[in-house]
Amino acid sequence: MNLITLAIDIGNTSSKWGVFQKGNLVRKENTSRDTQSYSAFLQTLLPQPMNCPIRAVMASVVPETSKHIALALASSGIPLGIIDRFSQIPMPISLKEPNQVGMDRLLAAYAGLKMAPGASHVITIDAGTAITVDLVSREKGFLGGAILPGFHLMAKSLHDHTALLPLAARPFPVQKGPGANSLEAIQVGISSAGIGGVARLIADYQLLAGENTKIFFTGGDGLLLAEALMQKNAYHPDMVLWALNFLDSH
Length: 250
Prior knowledge:
The structure is a single chain. The protein has 250 residues and is α/β, with parallel strands linked by helices. It folds into 2 domains: 4-82, ATPase, nucleotide binding domain (Nucleotidyltransferase, domain 5); 89-245, 2-Layer Sandwich (Nucleotidyltransferase, domain 5), CATH 3.30.420. The chain has helices spanning 38-45, 63-75, 103-115, 151-160, 182-209, 222-228, 239-249; strands spanning 4-10, 14-21, 24-32, 54-60, 80-82, 121-127, 130-137, 141-149, 213-218. The strands form 2 sheets. Strands 3-2-1-4-5 form a 5-stranded mixed beta sheet, with helices on both faces. The chain has a 4-stranded mixed beta sheet with strand order 8-7-6-9, sandwiched between helices. Helix 4 crosses helix 5 (182-209).
C-alpha cells in the first residue's frame, strides 16, 4: 500500500499543500489565511475514501494558522510532524544564531542542495511577501543571506506612507526607461529595486562561491525575477514542499 505524504507550507499570505506519492508531487493546492474549514478542504484535497496511509509534515511562519490546520488533521486521523527547529534539518548552519533564521529559508536551501547534488554551492531566491537571497555550501551548509521587501510590500509601503501615490498592483512589468505617470514610475522603481538588488546579491555570492554554483528561484514572484534575470529554467515554485517531502523520507 502506497504511503501519501501531505506537505504543508504555511506562509504569510497563503498556505501551500502538496500531495506526494511514490516520490512525485501529484497534486498541489493553495489556501488563503481566511479559509473557514480546513477539514472540508482536506476532504477535497485527499483521495476519498482514504485507502492508503497518509501522514502530514508541516512548516509554518504563522502560528495561528498552524493551530487550525493541526486540529483539522487530528480530526481526520492524519498524523502530523512539525518542522519548527533548525536541528531537524540535516544540513549544517554556519551562523552564530541559527535559531534566528526563518524555517522557510532553511527549507528552501536544503531543497536546493538535494535538487542539485553536483553543485558545490546553491543560491536560493524566494520571492514572496519578502525576497530572500541565501547562499548554501555543500560542505559548510547554510551560510546566510539577505532579506529585501517583496514587490507588493514595496508598493503597499509607498501607498500607505504617502498622501497621493496610487497602489501599484501585480503584475509588476519589467519596463526599461522612465515611467510616463506616477503608477508607471512606481512599477519601474519597484521592479528595478527588486530585480537589481537580487542581481547584485547573486553576483556577490558567485564571487564567493565559484563557478560550480546552482541558482534556484521560488515563491509567488520568483518567476518574475527568474525571467527578468534570464533564468526562467531556474524557477521551481514548490521548493519548500519538496524539502518537507525530502525530510519525511529522510
